[in-house]
C-alpha cells in the first residue's frame, strides 16, 4: 500500500512540475509591427508584449471603412489580449476581410515575438 502511495505522489509531483513549465512566457517582451492586406488597403499594427503577454495592440495604418473596421478592431484586439494569442479568432460579421487582415497583421507581429 505504501509503495502505491509513493508512486501516486511521484506522479502528482511530476504533473505539477510539468504544469509549472507551461507558465513560461509565450512571447518575448518588446514592441513588434506586422502588416497584412485588409479589404481596401494594407493594415499595419504595433503589438506590445510585456511579461510574455500581449498588453497592447495599436492600429498604425488602415484604409478600410472606419465604422466597420472599428467594430472589428475593438472585438479582435480585446480577444487577442484576453487569449494572449491571435489563433482561432473569429471574424466580425460585416467586416470579414477587415477582420482577417487585422488578425493576419497581429499574427505577423507576434511571429517576431517568438
Describe the structure.
It contains 3 helices and 3 strands, in the order αβββαα. The chain is an alpha+beta fold and 114 residues long. It has a 3-stranded antiparallel sheet with strand order 1-2-3. Keywords: Signal. Pfam families: FMN_bind (PF04205).
Number of helices in the DSSP assignment? 3
Q: What portion of the residues fall into strands of 2 or more residues? A: 15-25%
Question: Largest beta sheet: what is the strand line-up?
Answer: 1-2-3
Structural class: alpha+beta
Uncertain stretches of 5 or more adjacent residues: 11-22
Radius of gyration: 20 Å
Q: What is the first-to-last residue Cα distance?
A: 47 Å
Taken from the alpha-carbon principal axes, the silhouette is globular
Reported for the largest beta sheet, the result is: 3 strands, antiparallel
| Series of secondary-structure elements, N-terminal to C-terminal | HEEEHH
Could you tell me the mean pLDDT? 85
Keywords: Signal
Domain FMN-binding: 38-113
InterPro entries: FMN-bd
Signal peptide: 1-28
Amino acid at each position: 500500500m505504501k509503495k502505491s502511495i509513493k508512486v501516486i505522489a511521484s506522479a502528482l509531483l511530476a504533473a505539477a512540475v510539468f504544469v509549472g513549465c507551461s507558465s513560461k512566457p509565450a512571447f518575448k517582451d518588446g514592441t513588434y509591427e506586422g502588416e497584412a492586406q485588409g479589404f481596401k488597403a494594407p493594415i499595419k499594427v504595433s503589438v506590445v508584449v510585456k511579461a510574455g503577454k500581449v498588453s497592447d495592440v495599436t492600429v498604425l495604418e488602415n484604409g478600410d471603412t472606419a465604422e466597420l473596421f472599428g467594430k472589428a478592431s475593438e472585438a479582435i484586439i480585446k480577444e487577442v489580449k484576453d487569449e494572449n494569442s491571435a489563433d482561432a479568432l473569429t471574424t466580425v460579421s460585416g467586416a470579414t476581410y477587415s477582420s482577417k487582415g487585422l488578425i493576419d497583421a497581429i499574427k505577423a507581429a507576434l511571429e517576431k515575438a517568438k
